[in-house]
Amino acid sequence: MEWENLTSISAFVLLGLSKQPEQQEVLFGLFLFMYLVTVGGNLLIILAIIADAHLHTPMYFFVANLSLADACFVSTTVPKMLANIWIQNQAISYAGCLSQLYFFMLFVMLEAFLLAVMAYDRYVAICYPLHYVMVMSPGLCVFLVSASWIMNALHSLLHTLLMNNLSFCAERKIPHFFCDINPLLSLSCTDPFINELVIFTVGGLAGLVCVLCLIISYTHIFLTILKIPSIQGKQKAFSTCSSHLSVVSLFFGTSFCVYFSPPSTRSAQKGTVASVMYTVVTPVLNPFIYSLRNRDIKSSLRKLIWVSKIPSP
């Protein structure tokens, strides 16, 4: 095969979700709708939390950061896919591909860390309500969020730099709708052992920490809920937890299938479908499950919309 150094590559080709021309308009409309709903819903939630002083609490501080991460998450991949469908050009520059890889890795891991932090917040609130204010101090909240941003920025930079050291063959077609790490590794003509080792060790360790935090937090939460004497109270608490865990399971389940499955079981089609689930579907669901079903958020949104409709004197 013809070899080319990565520095000489000017562009890759994103094959997208479908090669059928008649499906392109449907995909464009569907993903444009989901993108607008995701970005619009999350920005409204952020504005509502900022505008309402009653929502300046640890839980809503984490919700605001999750909403920001979701909006950035989908903005990393979906706009480029929509642009490719609209102009019927599937090319993405080398610099653009590595930039997309960096920000995608940043926000996908940030999402995982924030979900784990929110689980810990709910654990303290339900299991130790009298100590909640003291434990979840403003300093700790800022530290948890800042540490999540910094660690994942460095983690993403590590993957991007390692990808930059690879050499690629003349084949530049990526069987995906964005520059994900596994499809890029499959195009490499050099041995990607170091890259795969980092994925399974550093990435696996980060994912394992998040999963363990979720499991331990919700185990204690469920045990505490079982002690609630009211059946109605138990049902309400379990309903809230099941909604949260459904999104957590969807996000972690599909992402682990994509990144930590054995190479012999991987396929481009399965990987693409799983990627759509956690890169597009999960951010669409998050505003509804975490925030829009919340009475405080809905009340703040109504106030925000009502104030915006009142004409200024």
From TrEMBL:
It is found in: Cell membrane; Membrane. It is a multi-pass membrane protein. Keywords: Cell membrane, G-protein coupled receptor, Membrane, Olfaction, Receptor, Sensory transduction, Transducer, Transmembrane, Transmembrane helix. GO terms for molecular function: G protein-coupled olfactory receptor activity. Residues 41-290 form the G-protein coupled receptors family 1 profile domain. The chain crosses the membrane at residues 28-50, 62-82, 102-120, 132-151, 197-225, 237-261, 273-292. Its main location: membrane. It comes from the Eukaryota. One of its GO terms (biological process) is adenylate cyclase-activating G protein-coupled receptor signaling pathway. Belongs to the G-protein coupled receptor 1 family. This is Olfactory receptor.
